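Tokens as discussed.
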């Protein structure tokens, strides 16, 4: 793997973890994500109109529609999972299962068969996500492994499937459209299709409150989320979707580091082990 590709994968994970840290301390995470998406659509759109343009090539239209639907499916299933289970269960299952599904889809749909070292690297990164997301004390291993009896786990795994599908679709799309341009369409699709979920029922007042009281967080999250996805799409033009999805799992460790330094959360030996597994896995991927 080229140094540029590796740098893009690490950058997308770092930015993803950073905006998730902001979302974690937000009073209305769903509203924050949607407003940040709107911020990205408007701000990024203005730059594109005055620069490389904003038009989607015909070869990217069907993959974009598939990706947009699956991005919405990911959003809904993740919200459902969080409403039924702990972050320590839902997030690692979502992010940890996605590389496995992506490797399968990339092989079947795109014919991207990886060397055994690459698959070993993905497996270590998935295992690293699992370990790093365990409670710091590591005392709930039995509870975590009893996933089949937890409805939240089903939603988390469903979100992993959606991540895999939209990642593979995105790889097809960026072969026909500049990743910087396609990135805008991704956020535009999210802004439109997420709206019915975000604004349903009596959420309007709390949504407006989030924008008024946390507009700085919205702006920063918008910049980081747009930048994170742009880096991921650029990486998809250079390497397999399986590697990009797996590499983005580094956000778990980076997020834990941010929580430790900024929010004074414990890091612990469990997360150190998870970090080692993920670094070794990324090292194997980097040498393929």
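Sequence:
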């Amino acid at each position: 793997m080229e140094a540029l590709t590796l740098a893009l994968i690490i950058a997308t994970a770092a930015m993803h973890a950073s905006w998730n840290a902001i979302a974690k301390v937000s009073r209305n995470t769903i509203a924050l994500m949607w407003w940040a998406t709107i911020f990205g659509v408007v701000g990024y759109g203005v730059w594109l109109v005055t620069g490389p343009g904003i038009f989607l090539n015909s070869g990217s239209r069907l993959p974009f529609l598939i990706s947009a639907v699956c991005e919405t499916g990911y959003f809904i299933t993740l919200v459902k999972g969080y409403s039924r289970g702990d972050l320590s269960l839902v997030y690692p299952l979502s992010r940890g299962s996605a590389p496995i599904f992506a490797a399968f889809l990339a092989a079947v749909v795109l014919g991207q068969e990886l060397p055994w070292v690459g698959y070993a690297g993905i497996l270590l990164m998935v295992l690293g996500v699992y370990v790093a997301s365990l409670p710091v004390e590591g005392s709930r291993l039995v509870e975590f492994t009893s996933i089949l009896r937890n409805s939240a786990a089903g939603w988390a795994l469903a979100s992993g499937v959606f991540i895999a599908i939209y990642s593979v679709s995105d790889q097809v799309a960026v072969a026909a459209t500049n990743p910087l341009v396609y990135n805008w369409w991704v956020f535009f699709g999210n802004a439109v299709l997420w709206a019915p979920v975000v604004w349903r029922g009596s959420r309007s007042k709390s949504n407006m409150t989030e924008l008024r009281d946390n507009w700085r967080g919205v702006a920063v999250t918008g910049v980081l989320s747009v930048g994170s996805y742009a880096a991921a799409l650029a990486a998809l033009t250079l390497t397999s979707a399986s590697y990009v999805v797996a590499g983005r799992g580094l956000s778990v460790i980076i997020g834990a580091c941010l929580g430790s330094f900024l929010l004074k959360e414990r890091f612990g030996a469990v997360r150190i082990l998870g970090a080692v597994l993920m670094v070794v896995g990324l090292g194997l991927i980097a040498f393929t």
